[in-house]
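Dear colleagues,

As part of the handover before I leave the project, I'm documenting each prediction I ran so the next person doesn't have to rerun anything. This entry is a single chain, and its sequence is reproduced below.
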Amino acid sequence: MTVKTILFCLPYAGASATIYWQWKGQLSPHIELRPVELAGRGARYDEPYAASIADMLKDAVTQIGSQVQEVPYAIYGHSMGAVLAYELYYLLLREGYPPPVHLLLSGRPAPLSDRKRTFSWSSLKQRLLAPLSFPDGRIPAEIKRRPELAAKFKKILNADVRVLETYRLDPARPLINCPVTVFAGLNDKINREEIQLWNRHTVHNCEIVWIKGDHFFLHSHMEEVVSVINQTIPAAIHDQEGFIQWKR
């Protein structure tokens, strides 16, 4: 019997889970899309924003914990979502949950760097807020046409960046012990060496995939990103004794 692998997706700063629904028709039949909605956005519009990364992570575990006990799962996160995906991996393991079959990190430099980092959340926020003009084809383009959405986007983005600016990596953390794929935009303003440093966070091979486009390549080049995901996440089956196995 074929078992679907759940793909949990975490949004970038200022966004909601809805940014991933356009993937639904593109994903392989053995992958089930389940975007994770954070407080203060989407269907949780009226809830207060999280005050810390820890609060976001506790919220995410509450949402997905019961779903990862017996079914294989993978985690994808873009930008802020990559920070959450990375930290969620460790929190799930600390709380006794099984590890994901794959971790997919997108649009974010590695936490480890041997030199002064060129990436900053504040500079990214300014790039997003200044014109509020996203190229055609991206989900946030709707913001240009609806002032109420622009105002909400600003509030969510400001709240997310305040949280991200307090984030600090635990230097004593063990290496990631599951397959990892890192996506990066060829025209993004993230330093390429800092993307390559993800290799120093993993036990297994870390595949780095360069996608045409800027920071929001997950929208402008959605088909390419989803194609890699379809090839990367293994299909899961039950063997004769009822145990789940993963096959490519």
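The helical segments are 53-64, 80-94, 121-129, 142-145, 147-164, 192-196, 217-220, 222-232. Residues 40 and 48 are 5 Å apart (CA to CA).

All the best with the project,
I.
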